[in-house]
Design a protein that fits this description.
The chain is α/β, with parallel strands linked by helices. The chain is globular and about 65 Å long.
């Protein structure tokens, strides 16, 4: 069934930043490209469109943004049980805010990024007789950074939400299979991995063509990383393992873009092994500069991921015609053809990861061929409009 000019409210409870913000903006853009009107309902100060990097840099922090920051800092200090009560209570806020937006927009569809304990959207959609599709990036079935106290309540609420929505969008087949096993009555679903904005992540549109030269990388083979410097991405152990071997590959340089808890220990490791001349730590850069930094790389590295997630950076690298060395977790092997659009290594095999990355140093033709294939794959299958088409198929 085809739909034209739908009025859609896209509701989320995230901070609207980083990969979350990029994903929300991407799906919204995809829906609009298909001719639909989309209104995003965010927490005050968390609108991902108003937080687009170029706008944020010009405008500076808004009053609502400062309020959100204070709220986030407040909730970080709450004990787990109090935080979960806070999450459940937020349903009362959503009933009023979402209802008002649905009325104002005369919405014909609610698309919601599901969060734990959040059931108000599904309840409201059923009450108003309009369809709702949930995008599943979180679940009681997967591990969280915070320990889960009210797991039984969370699971019952999740079962009800998944069973009473009109459709579910999962980011990986592994996640979909996990949920189907736990909730036999859940709604129809599709698997829709992340995607990339090919207008932004385009090797032909990168303006800063001198970046590689300015970084002193003109005659180097550049292996790059972009993202948070946190342990679960594996960048800390990767640098610890590869640093002692860099002097055996004098033509190789690492360009590591980002910041986080592991940054200082990672820099200490570089200094300790005496390879500062082969490792560039750029620090965090604004999202609008990320394409230029990826363009300065020959191929990328993602040392670690998880069994249900769909890493955003993988798709952005591929859109920039750069292959990545990535672990073969199911959500990644579902979208990567090994040796054709990127390179897989056995997940959790740290030595295998480093060896695969080093084995490609002397093969520039392979790097370029795989990069070209990766770009073509994104163009043909993983633009945001493809995600939009998939979610609309559920109604």
């Amino acid at each position: 069934m085809e739909f034209n000019d739908l009025r859609i409210v896209f509701h989320h409870r995230t901070r609207g930043k980083g990969a979350e913000g990029a994903h929300i903006r991407g799906v919204t853009k995809g829906l609009r490209e298909l001719g639909h009107h989309v209104s995003i309902l965010s927490m005050p100060g968390a609108d991902p469109e108003s937080q687009a990097p170029a706008q944020a840099m010009k405008a500076g922090p808004s009053r609502s943004g400062l309020g959100l920051r204070r709220l986030v800092e407040f909730t970080k200090k709450l004990p787990p049980f109090a935080f979960e009560v806070f999450e459940m209570a937020y349903n009362l806020v959503i009933i009023f805010r979402l209802s008002a937006r649905v009325r104002a927009e005369e919405a014909e569809l609610i698309y919601e990024r599901y969060s734990l304990f959040m059931v108000a959207g599904v309840w409201l959609a059923r009450r108003r007789g309009i369809p709702i599709v949930l995008e599943i990036n979180d679940s009681v079935l997967v591990s969280r950074v915070r320990p889960l106290v009210f797991a039984g309540i969370a699971r019952r609420l999740e079962d009800w939400a998944f069973s009473n929505a009109n459709g579910l969008v999962f980011i990986s087949a592994q996640f979909q299979k996990l949920a189907a096993g736990a909730y036999p009555r859940m709604a129809a679903s599709v698997v829709s991995p992340n995607a990339a904005d090919v207008a932004i992540f385009s090797p032909d549109r990168v303006k800063d063509t001198d970046l590689r030269a300015r970084l002193g990388l003109s005659n180097k083979v550049v292996l790059g990383y972009v993202g948070a410097f946190v342990h679960w991405h594996g960048i800390d152990w990767f640098v610890d393992l590869i640093a002692p071997r860099l002097k055996d590959f004098p033509q190789l340089s690492l360009l590591l873009v980002g910041d986080g808890k592991c940054f200082e220990s990672l820099r200490d490791s570089v200094d300790r092994h005496g390879v500062a001349d082969q490792v560039i730590l750029s620090g965090r850069v604004t999202h609008n500069l990320v394409p230029a930094y990826i363009a300065a790389m020959d191929y990328g590295i993602l040392p670690d991921s998880n069994i249900y997630g769909s890493p955003m950076k993988l798709f952005e690298f591929m859109a920039m015609a750069k292959g990545m060395v990535v672990p073969d977790f199911p959500p990644i092997s579902e979208v990567v053809r090994d040796g054709e659009t990127s390179w897989l290594f056995p997940a959790s095999d740290r030595e295998g990861c480093v060896q695969k990355a080093l084995s490609l140093v002397g093969h520039p033709d392979e790097q370029k061929t795989v990069g070209t294939n990766a770009r073509n794959y994104i163009l043909e299958e993983r633009q945001w409009r493809h995600n939009a088409e998939q979610l609309l198929s559920l109604i």
